[in-house]
Amino acid sequence: MANTKPINIRLDDKLDSRLHHAVNESGLPLADVMRMALSIGLKDLELMNFDIEGAIYDRVMKEKAKIPKPLASVPNSERNPRKKQA
User: Fold this and answer.
1) What is the crossing angle of helices 52-66 and 30-47, to 10°?
2) pTM confidence score
């Protein structure tokens, strides 16, 4: 495969179990099974005229909103009192 790069993906236990079951039944490598599963899922969504890009964007923004942000109201000099400047 040209122009491929490895990616890390976190799977819940149920999905991991289903993927490994498919690997055991097919005898194919896990990476191939994962590529096929992604391809099949995306193809099904395309057939339904599902807005894939919009759904991905919405999910990313939802997850991004969960990430705690630092307090912007506290000046940098007061965030770490040990690092007082002279």
Assistant:
1) 110
2) 0.53
- 26 in a domain, yes or no? yes
Distance separating alpha carbons of residues 19 and 25, to the nearest angstrom? 10
For residues 30 and 20, the answer to whether their CB atoms sit within 8 Å is: yes
Residue with token string 């807005």:
51
Rounded to whole angstroms, the Cα distance separating 16 from 20 reads 6
Is residue 2 included in any domain, yes or no?
Answer: no
What lies within 8 Å, CB to CB, of 55 at 6+ separation is: 45
The three-class DSSP label of residue 44 is: helix
Q: Rounded to the nearest 5 degrees, what angle is found at the Cα of 54, between the Cα atoms of 57 and 17?
A: 70
If one counts the domains in the chain, the total is 1
Tens-place pLDDT, residues 30-55: 989 998 998 888 888 788 888 888 88
62 is a domain residue = yes
